[in-house]
Design brief:
Elements lengths: L26 H36 L19 H5 L7 H7 L3 H20 L3 H19 L21 H15 L8 H6 L1 H5 L5
Helix pairs in contact: 1-4, 1-6, 4-5, 5-6
């Protein structure tokens, strides 16, 4: 009995290779790919973080029914800071935050901070200013929640999950990293912003 050997044919879809068979990618090509990938990762992180701040602004302004109930938005006469600062129950600035709660200047400063940081991140401009403002905001909110406390001022358990590293710290580090990496150049207006005369003369506006 004769045995016929048939060539196995693969009909599956294949992506065409852009390199010659058996050749390794050049060092420059690998570096360029890694740089582009890093730029896209930072750009995506920037947009997501910007949406966090913008959403907080929109929800607190219009009372979209999430963290801020319907009819309790800023435009309805509600205070974006009264509930949070008025509920501070631990830490060295407890009485200070209670005094600030609901103050018009505190509401405006907080809301303009959310809006400014959110717009800067989404558009990719003024990331250094956004990092400074966002880090200051996160530091104040960290102090307000005071994660190191095991007990609140009334003696009840604080339910703190970590005495130091919480989401405020993470957001602050992300903001600083985005500014250092110049993350506004990809999927943003960072390059165009940097070319403006008043920005090129004042590099702290980048």
């Amino acid at each position: 009995m004769a045995v016929h050997e048939h060539t196995h044919r693969h009909t599956g879809f294949r992506f065409p290779s852009l390199r010659r068979a058996g050749t390794a990618p050049a060092a420059g090509e690998t570096t360029a790919t890694a740089t582009a990938t890093r730029a896209y990762v930072f750009a995506g992180l920037r947009l997501l973080t910007g949406f966090v701040f913008l959403w907080a602004f929109l929800d607190k302004t219009f009372g979209l029914g999430y963290a801020t109930g319907s009819g309790k938005g800023w435009i309805d006469g509600g205070s974006p800071t009264k509930g949070f600062l008025g509920g501070v129950a631990a830490g060295p600035m407890e009485s200070t935050f209670h005094a600030w709660a609901g103050a018009a200047w505190a509401d405006w400063l907080f809301m303009l901070g959310l809006l400014g940081i959110g717009l800067a991140l989404v558009s990719g401009i003024a990331l250094r200013l956004a990092a400074i403002a966002g880090t200051a905001m996160m530091a104040l909110m960290w102090i307000a929640e005071w994660p190191p406390a095991k007990h609140l001022s009334d003696g009840s358990a604080s339910m703190s999950t970590n005495p130091f590293a919480d989401y405020h710290l993470i957001y602050a580090i992300v903001l600083i990293a985005l500014a250092v990496a110049g993350a506004g150049a990809t999927w943003g207006l960072g390059k165009a912003w940097a070319r403006l005369p008043f920005v090129s003369r004042n590099r702290w506006l980048l």
